[in-house]
Write a structure and sequence with these properties.
about 20% strand; about 45% helix; alpha/beta; 6 helices
């Protein structure tokens, strides 16, 4: 089976849970874990532009522990509508070209998991992102993330969570067993 693991925020360097899932799944399957490069602080405006242009054209893979591979896909800066459409398309094409059988996503916004006929999509809730943004005084962001996660969970074949309290959140907020 070929599986793609999508960290909570696709445009950031690997998160621990995504890496752990990828490594655990690689014991029995071929696994790609999405990764990204962090922009160096203090770049001039011109160097930031060049960095973003390079990110839009970058495609690379690197071996991880346990047989998984980290894959860096082309990415645009976070211009919400353009970025979402571009990166979702790149991810969909990658899943198709690699003949991906399953996707495990922790996505919280922007990039949708590439679902397709015959492809299993598992949503993995690793934190109560909505509550975090509400406590931070950003109900607008919380509502947006809640809606995004709800859409991802609705189309998922299965839902997992990193703790029993999060399983309760999935049931209470999204009406699904985790």
């Amino acid at each position: 089976m070929r599986i793609i693991v999508i960290p909570a925020v696709m445009n950031t360097p690997l998160r621990t849970r995504a890496a752990e899932l990828g490594i655990a799944l690689a014991a029995r399957h071929r696994v790609l874990v999405l990764d990204a490069e962090r922009q160096a602080p203090g770049l001039s405006r011109a160097r930031r532009f060049v960095w973003h242009l390079r990110q839009a054209l970058t495609f690379s893979t690197q071996a991880m522990a346990g047989g998984a591979s980290a894959i860096r896909l082309p990415a645009l800066p976070r211009w919400p509508r353009v970025s979402c459409a571009y990166q979702s398309t790149i991810l969909r094409l990658t899943a198709w070209a690699w003949r991906c059988d399953a996707v495990v996503t922790e996505g919280t916004a922007e990039v949708r998991a590439p679902g397709a006929r015959g492809r299993t999509v598992v949503y993995d809730l690793l934190d109560d992102h909505t509550a975090g943004w509400e406590r931070a005084g950003r109900p607008d962001v919380a509502a947006s993330i809640h809606a995004f996660i709800g859409r991802e969970i609705a189309k998922a074949s299965a839902v997992t969570a990193s703790s029993r309290p999060l399983c309760d959140v999935v049931l209470r907020e999204y009406g699904r067993e985790a």
